[in-house]
Amino acid sequence: MKKHISGTDILKGSAVLGCASIISKIIGVVYRIPLTNILGDIGVATYASAYQIYVLLLAISSVGIPSAIARLVSECISLEAYTDARRVYKIAMVYMGILSGLLGIGLWIGSDIIAYSMNNRSELALPLKALAPTVFIVSIVAVMRGYYQGLNNMLPTAISQIVEQGFNGLFSVVFAFYLVQYGVNVAASGSAVGTGVGALAGLIVLLIIGRRIRNKDYNIKRLGTSSTKIYSKDIEILKKILKTVIPITLTTSIFSLMTIIGNYLLVYQLPHAIEYLTINNKLSQIPVTSADTMDIKLIVDSLIGQFLNKYIPLINIPVSAILIIATATIPAIASSMVTHNIRDIQHKTNKLLRLGMLIALPSSVGLMVLSRPIINVLYPNAPDGSQLLMYGSMGIIFITIAQLTTSILQGMGKQIIPSVHAIIACLVKLICDIILLQIPSINIYAVVHSTTICYLCFALLNVIYLKKTLKIEIDWRDIGLKPLLSTGVMGGIVYIIYSFLSNLTNDIIALSISIMSGVISYMISGFLSRTFTAQDISYIPYSKKIIKHIKMYIK
């Protein structure tokens, strides 16, 4: 009898992975606080620039692997082809071992060349060498996570993600603290080694958990016991893996590559903008404290550090919450697509976009209004970057729409469409980067504005395709207008309360009370205006139990 995984199981698994992702992101932000206070924006810029190149290699090697393996293993299990499930794992491991090994060796050997190509930033070579072994470790971890997900066991992936990020944060800070006496560059390289320690810890956890559940999991017990075969040759499995991986890799690699190209443009063009502002006595337009006492290179490194280590991690916290919804979207849409129920797909699309906006809008406005105290509280020794966060927080809205519509299209079997749209959006970003960086008064804000424009373009292309080609009608009044009104009320209350308290107490207390006031006012105004209802919240995995308890408490 074939063993099927229910929709409920999928949603529960998505919730587990989503929660683990949010916890990991929070840990990522938390450990960057002491790291930035140790290294400063300049030292962090070195680490973050090297890390972006490392992320590109991961995008090429392992980003789509967990999904591909999970899908193939799940198919094998459902057809009782247990031997083939094990073959998928082994072939993927060999493939990833070779690919990631070559990329890691290439990064080690080519680190000096990469550093030289980035306007002769020799300080990048050592952190790149430190990250090279991690490319191999993370790729192996990705295969194992995909394997367990295919067996419908999300716990190993969730636990290993949290452990990996925890060890990463701990050792990155510890190594930086002890090595900073030898120079910022050496300390940044120590932080890069901490990333490898985290990946190794995640691998060890997977091995330990795998050993413990091997005798308990039904699917694992059955592996190798069936003579049923789906694939006659190993090359067929590899082709199936690549067919699933390539569209995901293409989309992710494009954004990673565009980030690196954006960094290249910053390194080459930003110094000219800073030089112009310096010569014309317009240093006040540069968001760097004591810029008048720093040379141009230090100012540029500080600005890049603000962007890579403050703006991006803080923006990614609400984006991670959206990813929970996006993860649960694919099976929900796919189930309706099987029966060609376009009306149901349209209903789910509107509900999911509405839920996304209920998170994205208050997150965007909250970060915008409280950007200065957030940066001051998190980075007291390096308090620059609040303006980047303020201007860039608008991008959360477009990132949300882009992510959710991409998941909807993937659920409908249109995987290649978001990849094409991503290429177009990233080309638009590249053009915007080139144009905006020519304007000295914009300087570092160029990359923030171009990122917002990029995701706006990506979201628009996806929405247009859904509406024009697939005939999916989207009710923007219901999705955006009511949440916007409730968000406006919240933003006004937060601004007033913080402005009042900031004159009476310190930033930590004022910020904490303002955030709590914002959450309460948003919930109250939302329920009173029927901006959101219990039905909207029910689309979040496990939310029905929460709603049940709330109703019992109210009664």
How many separate structural domains?
2
Overall geometric form: globular
N-to-C span: 46 Å
Q: Give a count of the beta strands, DSSP E runs of length 2 or more.
A: 0
Share of residues in helices: over 70%
Stretches where pLDDT is under 50 for at least 5 consecutive residues are 1-11, 549-555
What would you note in describing this structure?
- By secondary structure, the protein is mainly alpha-helical.
- It folds into 2 domains: 1-232, no CATH class; 246-473, no CATH class.
- It is built from 19 helices and no strands.
- The chain has helices at 7-61, 65-78, 82-117, 125-150, 155-179, 184-213, 218-222, 234-279, 296-338, 342-369, 371-378, 386-392, 395-411, 416-436, 445-469, 476-501, 507-528, 534-537, 543-554.
- The longest helix has 55 residues, at 7-61.
